TrEMBL record:
Keywords: Kinase, Membrane, Phosphoprotein, Transferase, Transmembrane, Transmembrane helix, Two-component regulatory system. One of its GO terms (cellular component) is plasma membrane. This is histidine kinase. It comes from uncultured bacterium CBNPD1 BAC clone 67. InterPro entries: HAMP_dom, HATPase_C_sf, HATPase_dom, His_kinase_dom, HisK_dim/P_dom, HisK_dim/P_sf, Sig_transdc_His_kin-like_C, TCS_sensor_his_kinase. CDD domains: HATPase, HisKA. Residues 139-339 form the Histidine kinase domain.
Length: 339
């Protein structure tokens, strides 16, 4: 399919117009010159014979010549623009996980090179600011954990009352937020070499741990269906982050006394089902953004859990998606790369 917005197409069209205009001017000049000769010397069979011979033997080649010139020009232009396409592909590859990459400038035309160099300088500044933000978040979360723990311990020693329980709940949420910020900062570090891990023991440990903690608070049961072993390609830190945050999210949205179901199949597909309010249409991608808490939910989470899941999945090559269940609630599905 022809791209009518491409530079090669536009240059080709202009070349065709120019060549056709020059041809028309040449033919017009030939006709005019013939008429001048006939006016000066009278009609001449020789002149008509020469003109007729020209049109029969040469004029048919003009369109072919024009088409050939256009094709050669378009090919040469595409070859000349190849470094630009490569630079564009390199620019598209630059992202949070590849901030070190830059646009190659060695083969770029001298007219374009300053623009690419300026873009690389801008990427340098963005990377420095991004790294500084990462260090700040990690340091702040780390430094906050100790005073939060001290304050929480002090609140726990106070006489039990409605105010004490409310303050203690806020301290628990604040401690959880600091832990999630620190976890997110760790996930943004360079990815260690992936290993062949059995996901089932991690899944069993986290499911039992969260089931025990949630039973004390909201009487939520956690059911697990999984084979004896499923080996995936991941590092332990990111695998645990994915499982823990998805199960925590389901526990938070499950109605009191309900049950969430975790399934892991032999082909590396893990699903987490809850019977909460579900996800409104159009918000399936937005819920994975940082500090995003849906207006439809009454939970008091930090809005970081699903962002951590998305970040961890992206770094190990897993895919995450969410859908509403026909019977109510949401289903989060993660497809792990098998080892």
């Amino acid at each position: 399919m022809i791209d009518r917005q491409s530079l090669a197409w536009q240059v080709g069209i202009r070349l065709a117009i120019i060549m056709l205009a020059l041809t028309a001017i040449g033919l017009g000049w030939l006709v005019w010159h013939t008429s001048v000769i006939e006016a000066a010397h009278g009609p001449s069979n020789l002149v008509h014979a020469v003109i007729q011979e020209f049109f029969l033997d040469l004029a048919w080649g003009v369109p072919v010549f024009i088409a050939l010139i256009i094709l050669i020009g378009a090919w040469a232009l595409r070859r000349a623009l190849l470094p630009l396409r490569q630079a564009s592909a390199a620019a598209l590859a630059i992202g949070p996980d590849a901030l070190h990459q830059r646009i190659p400038t060695a083969r770029l035309p001298s007219e374009i090179r300053p623009l690419a160099e300026a873009a690389n300088d801008a990427f340098d500044r963005v990377e420095k600011a991004y790294r500084a933000q990462q260090r700040f978040v990690a340091n702040a979360a780390h430094e906050l954990r100790t005073p939060i723990a001290v304050a929480r311990a002090a609140v726990e020693r106070l006489p039990e009352s409605a105010e004490q329980r409310a303050v203690l709940a806020d301290m628990v949420r604040l401690s959880h937020l600091a832990s999630q910020l620190l976890e997110l900062a760790r996930l943004e570090r360079p990815l260690p070499p992936s290993a062949r891990l059995d996901a089932v023991p991690h899944l069993q440990e986290i499911a039992c741990e969260l089931a025990a903690s949630s039973l004390n608070a909201r009487d939520v049961r956690v059911a697990l269906e999984a084979p004896n072993s499923v080996f995936v390609r991941a590092d332990a830190e990111r695998l645990i982050a994915i499982i823990r945050n998805l199960v925590e999210n389901a526990v938070h949205h499950e109605p009191r006394g309900g049950e969430i179901l975790i399934r892991l199949t032999s082909d590396g597909l893990m699903t987490v089902d809850d019977r909460g309010p579900g996800i409104p249409a159009g918000d399936e991608k937005r819920i994975f953004e940082r500090f995003e808490r849906g207006s439809w939910t009454k939970t008091s989470g930090s809005g970081l859990g699903l962002a951590i899941v998305k970040e961890a999945c992206a770094t190990i090559g897993a895919t995450i998606r969410v859908e509403n269940r026909a019977s109510g609630g949401a289903r989060f599905s993660v497809e792990f790369p098998l080892a």
